[in-house]
Amino acid sequence: MDKVDVLMLGTGEYTTGYVGGKASDSDKGAGVVALTMFDLRRRNKVNRVGMCGVNGKKFPGIRQHMQRCIGDVYGGMDLTCETFPGDDQVDPKAYVDASSKFKAGDVAVIFTPDDTHFDIAMECINKGMHVMVTKPIVQKLEDHQKVAKAAAEKGVLVGVEVHKRLDPFYADARDRVRGGLGNFQYMYAYMSQPKHQLETFKAWAGKSSDISYYLNSHHIDWSEWTLAGVARPIRVTATGSTGVAKSKGMETEDSITLTVQWQNMNDKTLGCAVYTSSWAAPKSDVHSQQRFFYMGTQGEINVDQAHRGCTVSTDQGGFASVNPLFMKYTPTNGMFSGQGSYGVRSFENFIDACREVNSGSKKPSDFDDGSLATVHTTQQGTAILEAGRMSLDADGQPMDIEYDGEGHIPTGIKPHKFA
Hints:
Layout: E1 4-9, H1 13-16, E2 18-19, E3 22-23, H2 33-42, E4 46-52, H3 59-71, E5 82-84, H4 94-100, E6 107-110, H5 117-126, E7 130-134, H6 141-154, E8 158-161, H7 168-180, E9 184-194, H8 197-200, H9 211-226, E10 231-241, H10 244-247, E11 255-264, E12 270-281, E13 290-296, E14 299-304, E15 311-314, E16 318-321, H11 342-359, H12 379-393, E17 399-402, E18 412-415
Parallel strand pairs: 1-4, 1-6, 4-5, 6-7, 7-8, 9-12
Antiparallel strand pairs: 2-3, 9-13, 10-11, 10-17, 11-12, 13-14, 15-16, 17-18
């Protein structure tokens, strides 16, 4: 199959690991997207690589950072990368020019602030590009429906980057649920990041998105993927905690909890899921606490993603519980050897799928079977997240998710009316 050209949109922590003029102090100091694309080029799956941001004045520092964290660490890495806008330019619409330099069948990978996803994705889709967008793909169900319609009309593959689907613990839990735990009863999920991450996200935290869109999206996606055809979300009630972010001058919640009522499709019985996310946690042995408890009518599962039984302690970094299943940055014999990590596989699987579509051996719709998180199979997640924001803005009023009859694709959201 032919190689694909890739345009990365966004230059921040997840793409490059470069934040505030230096390497991020999270677990992604070398970035994920750019490192993966350079490695895929080394392995003859990707050809041309481009990167687009808003502030071109950052690119000299980004190039130095990537050379130091990738080129000087791993052998055989070609870091050649076209950048948009120019190094002396600041242009919020640079994605329009950047995408025009790529052709139909090329791949766009979008890791930008949540409120920009829709416009950038639509620009790339309309140019015939396949598109992968970080979660949440968009913030409103109405926009999700428009993106899905455009993707179908253009015949391109559009997916959401939700790498927890490739975490072997989460994937196994999904299969166990679907393989014999009966109807859905109850789920509690928690995901957090330390409060210094508020500085990383200060450009958009509370202005264009919130911690629920950023972190609750992971476990909500796991639920939608796991319960596809089994249950559907019908009501969302949200509550928040405040104080830490506001003390830093950010008008946003520290923690957000979404209580979601799910309806089992076979007998209309009800289940309840509680999703909590926070970016006000203390610094600890892990960058991100991630865990959930799931109970069905015939069994239960506990998953602690943060602690994999591996700890490391160094004079420089102190004590840490590490997770090389996500990203393995430590080289083997001078080469990048993280290809089996689910942070890498998430992108490689999408690139492979795009190459198959381009070759004619597969259609975009072939990936709506749960093998990828496509735009057509993730609308429940968008509905839950939007309903949660609507509930918060309405002082906790429950929001109902609407469907056509017994369908599983949401059609709308409206405030719940009490009898």
